[in-house]
Amino acid sequence: DSGVTQTPKHLITATGQRVTLRCSPRSGDLSVYWYQQSLDQGLQFLIQYYNGEERAKGNILERFSAQQFPDLHSELNLSSLELGDSALYFCASSPRDERVTEAFFGQGTRLTVV
Amino acid sequence: ILNVEQSPQSLHVQEGDSTNFTCSFPSSNFYALHWYRWETAKSPEALFVMTLNGDEKKKGRISATLNTKEGYSYLYIKGSQPEDSATYLCAFRGNQAGTALIFGKGTTLSVSS
Fold first, then answer.
1. Is residue B49 scored above 90 in pLDDT?
2. What is the distance in angstroms between the Cα of A72 and the nearest Cα belonging to chain B?
3. For residue B103, what pLDDT is reported?
């Protein structure tokens, strides 16, 4: 158990809908990262937050947004969902924004858009 | 756009074989190279984090080397066991502000007994 908790584990929703994925980092970790893994793709970096502020941004669609709250948990909001958004979404956390610190991954949320 | 390439994409070996995989990454703006192991139905777990050119790290039968000047890292598994079956991911971290950990697509290893 990495100590990173993601909810829900599975989510099935229809096209056009909006969903929120939640991540609780390891106790004391300040950085939260979101990754998307689609079929035949590697882990695609979406966005990083550090202590409540956006720190780095990857190929995140405009329909997607995220935030990190004062208690350090993070939410990834996906709106106007399309079939192609079906993927495994991972959250990871690390103690600091130190580039040598390993990331600890949650179990992921599998999103299926029908 | 940063490109992290891993080869081979997949590999099937017999128990007891030794094997190695390659990770290629940009040789400029290097800060760290991570290796992760990702078993089916689990989440990726860190194996190594390497920062210095010439770094070698070892954990049991698994070891890794790093060449930052030419932009590659090797992961070695000695005497593969069925429990080594997993996808092995490398991830590059640059030294520029606003960048994060960029992953390759992984090498999937299958070890038969």
1. yes
2. 18
3. 93
Residue A42 has pLDDT above 90, yes or no: no
pLDDT at A95 over 90: no
Q: Kind of pairing, strands A31-37 and A43-50?
A: antiparallel
**Are the C-beta atoms of B37 and B45 separated by less than 8 Å?**
yes
Residue A100 is which amino acid? V
What distance in Å separates the CA atoms of residue B64 and residue B41, rounded to the nearest whole number? 25
Nearest to A105 among B31, B43, B49 (CB): B43
Q: How many CB atoms within 10 Å of residue B109?
A: 21
Q: Are strands B30-38 and B56-59 parallel, antiparallel or unpaired?
A: unpaired
Cis peptide bond upstream of A70, omega within 30: no
Name beta bridge partners: B10: B108
